[in-house]
Amino acid sequence: MPGVTVHAVSHYRETTPVGGPPGQQLFLNGACLIDTDLPPRTVLEILAAVEKTLHRERTERWGARTIDLDLLLYDDVVIDTPDLTIPHPRMATRRFVLEPAAEIAGDLAFPPAACTIRDLLDNISAPHPLVVVVGVPGSGASEVASVVADAVMGRPLHAPTALPFADGGSRSSLARWRQTLAAWSAPLERGRWSDASGTTIADYWCDGLVAAAADDLDADELDDFRGDADAAATRSITPSVAIMLVADPAALEERIAFRARRCRDHTDVFADLATAALVCDRPGDRVAPLLQLQDRLLRRLRTPGVRGPKAVITIDASDLSQAALESTAAVEAMI
Predict the structure, then answer these.
(1) Is 56 a catalytic residue?
(2) How far is Cα 238 from Cα 123, in angstroms, rounded to an integer?
(3) Has 94 been annotated as catalytic?
(4) pLDDT tens digit sequence for 220-240
(5) Could you say which of 114, 191, 255, 316 is the most buried, measured as most Cβ atoms within 10 Å of its Cβ?
């Protein structure tokens, strides 16, 4: 295409389909490195034109197709709009993307994690990776994590204790938050971590406690707790992948009402909403704090750091069945 120079093309790889309808044939995957002065959206339009020329039909998500061209990276640009997201939002866990990309451009930067493409590939290639499925109470993180663990035959790891929100809306003590941190971090300590191959799927992330504690602790206590969390992190396994379930206000209100009024004593679905601090007769009163916590969790996950997960995927949690399918596909793509 005019204005585009191809520098390198990887070998092609046959891969098993991930997600999508059953019974599909093998896919053929590769990557290319180009040089262009065209802006990202123009490059995307060029890719769409090539797809149209080769009779790409969009009839079913993740279904069979003649051609599928994705813009993975564009220099160090980060764009997040409804019609264009760069880097590609799913590339960090997809082996069928990272292997050919690392072959021809392993040192290319991946800005969200302040690392390289080769680092991303190494990240999902650990013998025993830790994948955390996280979200605010009511997001369905525990339920989705269980489904993913079953689907990929992984080891499930559930939070040993609930978040220490105090009854009646009063503040919890620093001591209670420290006790929770100790319980959450103990199964993740490096000395206890198995070297056996496999994947552990956890429904919690210790750094998430810092985001949650911000509602309960004053500034000095929160600084002390951050120090405790940093110390625990140095002793613990770093998650390879974090899947963040993002719930909208309507879904949270519906789930709080479901838990509070109809089946509190008959099911453990959304059990993380069962504390008196989150369940009340007027669900909307509890949604705003959950949304604030959700924003803090997202900011913490998206801040590059030496101990944070290199791969972060956000998934809409409004439909838990779909969220479970997408989360499972993200983990299956690592294998």
Answers:
(1) yes
(2) 10
(3) no
(4) 999 999 999 999 999 999 999
(5) 255
